[in-house]
Amino acid sequence: MLYLEKISEENKGKNALYKQVAQSLKQAIANNQLPPGSAIPSENALSAHFNVARSVVRQALAILVEDGFILKQAGRTSVVAPRVKHRRNLQNSLSLHSQLEDKGVMLRTEVLHLGKGVFPDAVAGFYGALEGVLLERLRYINEEPISYVQTWLPIEFNTLTVADLTNNSLHQQLYKQFKRKPEQGRNQIQIVAADKKLAAYLQVKNKSPLLQLQASYYDQHGLPMEWFTAWHREDKVVFDIAVDASLENKIQVKNFQRVLK
After folding, report:
1. Taking residues 61-76, what's their average pLDDT?
2. Model confidence over 119-153: pLDDT tens digits?
3. In terms of C-beta density within 10 A (0-12 exposed, 13-18 middle, 19 or more buried), how is residue 83 classed?
4. How far is CA 10 from the centre of its chain?
5. Which of 31, 112, 140, 257 would be 108's cystine partner, CB 3.0–4.6 Å?
6. Does 177 have pLDDT greater than 70?
7. C-alpha dihedral sign at 139, 192, 117, 95
8. What are phi and psi of 182, to 5 degrees?
């Protein structure tokens, strides 16, 4: 069981032992070292590997069952559960939060950073300005990270607070506070390798494949209102894109002009 990270002496007092055992197993499952359908090691084997009591192992396994990582079978060995991928419709202007909420899936949002910042060149060209608001968030389902999002917003949104955006939809807050909502924009999808920062945030191995979505949206008045890049775990998220052959060569993205007052 070399794939299971042991609990070091220095970490034993930092968090409950059963939580550390559970996290090690979750990491092995996320990295496909314990693929779907594979047997979970016995309680005795896990107890010996982590040098903890069997009661600690039982608590850890109970967490994995509750969070949907493993399937417990009466009279049989527990196995890794099939992976559930969450679908994001890229033809829909609804945020990931709203799309999952409509399906009854609870998305937790942690705000990592919120403050003024200097726009990168491409973002400055989009907004026609040099400075704005930088928002960085980590999104979780069942306490497991599924995406890291870096969003650049116009400076007029600088009254947003961390409390506004923790476990809340950005789009819902923008409409609630500023009466602005996304109407049209562009989405660009790439597969990229996780760097050390993204790997740490998303709890995957360095250079693991990620689904990168970069988008720029205009509001109902034709004003630029959001530019973001989101990196999604490819084992947790699927992008849906509708195809209609009747619209081939007829689709045009409206070229909005910045409204000057």
Report:
1. 83
2. 999 999 999 999 999 999 999 987 889 999 999 99
3. middle
4. 30
5. 140
6. yes
7. negative
8. -70, 135
| Domains annotated on the chain, with CATH | 9-80 (1.10.10.10), 86-247 (3.40.1410.10)
8 Å CB contact between 80 and 40: yes
pLDDT confidence of residue 129: 96
Rg (CA), the chain: 22
* β-bridge mates for residue 219, sequence order: 182
The yes-or-no verdict on residue 253 having pLDDT over 80 is: no
Burial 228-237 (b: 16+ CB within 10 A, else e): bbbbbbebbb
**Could you give the CA distance from residue 62 to residue 47 in angstroms, rounded to a whole number?**
15
CA neighbours closer than 13 Å in the CB half-sphere of residue 214: 6
Length of the chain: 261
Contacts 24+ apart (CB under 8 A), 127-130: 127/152, 127/154, 127/224, 127/227, 128/224, 128/258, 129/154, 129/155
Angle, helices 17-30/43-50, rounded to nearest 10 degrees: 110
